[in-house]
User: What shape does this take?
Amino acid sequence: MSTRPLRADAERTMTAILEAAEQTFSRDPAATMEQVAEAAGVARTTVHRRFATREALVDALALWATQRFASAVDAAHPDAVPPLVALYQATANVLGVKIGWGFAMSQASSANPEVARVHEEVRETCARLFRRAQEAGVLRADVDLDWTRRVYYALIHEAAHDTDAKSPDALATIVVDTLLRGAGTGSAL
Assistant: This one.
């Protein structure tokens, strides 16, 4: 995907192609560029003009979704609002992206260095948020923040695959509640 800004009509076409690719590949991961073009309502040559190969399209889709993922975290204002509010909002926002862009997010471990860079920035933001949460008493002082962050990521991953079609907000409530309270009663300790 080119790094120079696109004209408005070219941007709309690119968005249509990427949205169609997500929908098409979610239904059939082996779908062709022609099927993506048909779903986008554009000619196959239009897709090929922007993406030389199917792999280039998948890589662009992964980067596009990863950028939306990072924007979802940033929209929660993790460094500015109270940590519990930021944690909940970031969780709901991220779940919205992971649910809506499941195929692309599953490709986000691509070898694309920009995808890796964006994910590292999100990890750093999450680490800062967890430190703020610990300082505010939302997380215990003795908890291992790296472990807790990884558990949080696993909870989000599982919630994004919830088949009961709950909203991202409802799933965020479950994730944050499970993270902060756990599943046990604490009486056995």
Notes: DSSP finds nine helices and no strands in the chain. The chain has two domains: 1-52, 58-181.
